[in-house]
Amino acid sequence: MAQRTVLVVLFDGVQSLDVTGPVEVFAGAESHTPGSYRIRTASLDGGPVRTSSGLTLVPDGALTDPADDPHTLLVPGGAGTREADARMVDRLRALAPCAERLVSVCTGAILLAAAGLLDGHRATTHWAYCDKLARDHPAVEVDPDPIYVRDRRVSTSAGVTSGIDLALALVEEDLGREVALRVARHLVVFLRRPGNQAQFSAQLAAQTAHREPLRDVQQWITEHPAGDLSVEALAGRAALSPRHFARAFRAETGTTPGRYVDRVRLEHARRLLEDTGDGVEEISRASGYGTAEAMRRAFVRTLGTSPAEYRRRFRPAHATS
């Protein structure tokens, strides 16, 4: 088995978790399968860097080191990516042809894009910087929703912990699921959060209501997707008139009750399709759709695919209920 060099780029203002999360995954894989990975860190001149949280990281060497031709070139994010250093961009551009995989965590995608390495690729980054990435680099197809995106040899991930998810996916590709599972267990994380999983849950995507009755209603919706979630029923729970409830809910959460319910139900159905062996009919009832056809229409409208196709693509073949 050929050893794969993972070269992690360091710079002042790097986000420490963007570095240490993936590094711990690859290091864990190396401990389970000796000889699988060689991990190196490098800054432009080989000197120490100060992270965005104030920690100091000492790299193994400089990015100009000829020994650094990497299999996987990993660029973390952080405040230091906001204004792309011209020397860093040039060095990434020079290193890229040597690498089989280009990987970014969080706003590391901004550096890859500045080097022209994301042109013609689908990519993501932290939700707060997706608009900037799309605006500054129109040749990049920016998808703001998934926690990570893999497009040919280029893999990009959203904020912080999604770098761990992406690194686990890469280890699974290289060494198999069993090794990735051992690493995930050691790190006490889920092995598989699918890349298509949204950066936000329904609760996070909407603002949390200020008033306690509305917050309680939000929580009740999440816990009872198959319940009566009509505006009238929800308003009754909040002890408000339907009209007052709908107006207050939108003002405090940024979305309508109906849209919030739709997102919660879709999220619940996706989770059951990914993690259980329950039939589509059963899942449609448990998620509040009532019928498989109603759920199919919701999936096609929102995700562009049917529930059956969604399960085929995103649920492991070995998964059990």
TrEMBL record:
Q: Where are the transmembrane segments?
A: none
Q: Name one Pfam family in it.
A: HTH_18
* UniProtKB keywords: Transcription, Transcription regulation
UniProt key word Membrane = no
Domain HTH araC/xylS-type, chain residue ranges per copy: 215-313
- Kindly give the InterPro entries that the UniProt entry links to this protein: Class_I_gatase-like, DJ-1/PfpI, Homeodomain-like_sf, HTH_AraC, INH-QAR
The record ties this protein, via Gene3D superfamilies, to:
3.40.50.880, Homeodomain-like (1.10.10.60)
User: Which superkingdom heads the taxonomic lineage of this protein's source?
Assistant: Bacteria
| UniProt-recorded name of the protein | GlxA family transcriptional regulator
